[in-house]
């Protein structure tokens, strides 16, 4: 029993035991997952809505646990943050993504940008410009092909310091986009001060453009249009994620959205499988 104070206590249920056991065993193995080579990256294309061509790719991490099998980043990224190992994982992801992107360039494929997710905690814990510089140096990827995806949580912490770091990154030639835009609490006055390149319209908003009968919803459509206009008024690109239907892509194009990403175009695939998606029209 766990003591919760003078007059109350709670019993651990078998379900809770199972859950904390799972967490403990996941913690033990997560600590060694990088050195044991258990992570790999998959890549999801971003498409330019005007040309239908691949404009970039986003790197997404996967953990192949020896016993549990494939563990979703949604489950282990928060754990990695709690355990203080997110920066190790993040640095591995950055290096691997740069290496893969340089490899595509070397194969003579049309050069695309690679986007890497950086967790808010990683951004706080490490000198990101130095980590980025060493990844670029080691892999030989030119900086204009690297993009970092940051969440609004990053922008909210110590604004002046964040602005300095973002300026440093952009001075190196790296692009910055704000991920899951609209789901956090960033204020518009902060946003205006941020040296960034793009807003990524969160999947939940894209999902709300149409109702279950495929009819445009007034509020859902208005929110997405507003985010796209906001991006453009701030001289930023608008990228929509989680695009699953042709109707969503058409709507987004009609509102001037620049790029889309989602199952409509492609699920995240291995670096090898991505090769077939270069150099052709990817829009339905
Ligand atoms: P995110 O950055 O918003 O990534 C998009 C997620 O949506 C990915 O899930 C992707 O597979 C999924 N997705 C893409 N298109 C569609 C679609 O059309 N429909 C639906 N329903 N889903 C779609 P994934 O790969 O499981 O990643 C989940 C989250 O984990 C990411 O959300 C990101 O926050 C985090 N994450 C993934 N890789 C990394 C990483 O290397 N570093 C860090 N710090 N976080 C990562
Ligand atoms: Ca992302
Ligand atoms: Ca996102
Ligand atoms: Ca999202």
From TrEMBL:
Q: Does the keyword Metal-binding apply?
A: no
Sorted alphabetically, the Gene Ontology BP terms of this entry are:
cellular response to nitric oxide
Record key words, sorted: CBS domain, Kinase, Transferase
* Entry GO MF terms: cyclic-guanylate-specific phosphodiesterase activity; kinase activity
What sequence ranges are listed for the domain EAL?
23-282
Report whether Coiled coil shows up as a keyword of the record. Answer: no
Name this polypeptide is given? Histidine kinase
Which species is the source of this protein? Paramagnetospirillum kuznetsovii
């Amino acid at each position: 029993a766990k003591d919760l104070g003078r007059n109350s206590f709670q019993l651990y249920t078998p379900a809770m035991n199972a859950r904390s056991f799972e967490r403990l065993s996941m913690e033990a193995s997560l600590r060694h997952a990088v050195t044991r080579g258990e992570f790999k990256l998959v890549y999801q294309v971003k498409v330019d809505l005007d040309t239908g061509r691949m404009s970039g790719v986003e790197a997404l991490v996967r953990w192949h646990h020896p016993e549990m099998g494939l563990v979703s980043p949604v489950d282990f990224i928060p754990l990695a943050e709690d355990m203080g190992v997110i920066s190790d994982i993040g640095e591995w992801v950055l290096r691997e993504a740069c290496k893969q992107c340089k490899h595509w360039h070397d194969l003579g494929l049309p050069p695309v940008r690679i986007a890497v997710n950086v967790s808010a905690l990683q951004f706080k814990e490490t000198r990101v410009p130095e980590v980025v510089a060493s990844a670029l140096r080691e892999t030989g990827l030119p900086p204009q092909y690297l993009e970092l995806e940051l969440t609004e949580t990053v922008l909210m912490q110590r604004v002046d310091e964040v602005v300095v770091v973002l300026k440093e990154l952009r001075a190196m030639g790296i692009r910055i986009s704000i991920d899951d835009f609209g789901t956090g609490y960033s204020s518009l006055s902060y946003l205006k001060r941020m040296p960034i390149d793009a807003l990524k319209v969160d999947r939940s908003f894209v999902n709300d453009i149409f109702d279950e009968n495929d009819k445009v919803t007034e509020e859902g459509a208005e929110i997405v249009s507003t985010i796209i206009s906001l991006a453009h008024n701030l001289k930023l690109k608008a990228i929509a994620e989680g695009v699953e239907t042709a109707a969503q892509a058409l709507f987004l194009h009609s509102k001037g959205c620049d790029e889309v990403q989602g199952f409509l175009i492609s699920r995240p695939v291995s670096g090898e499988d991505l090769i077939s998606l270069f150099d052709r029209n990817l829009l339905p």
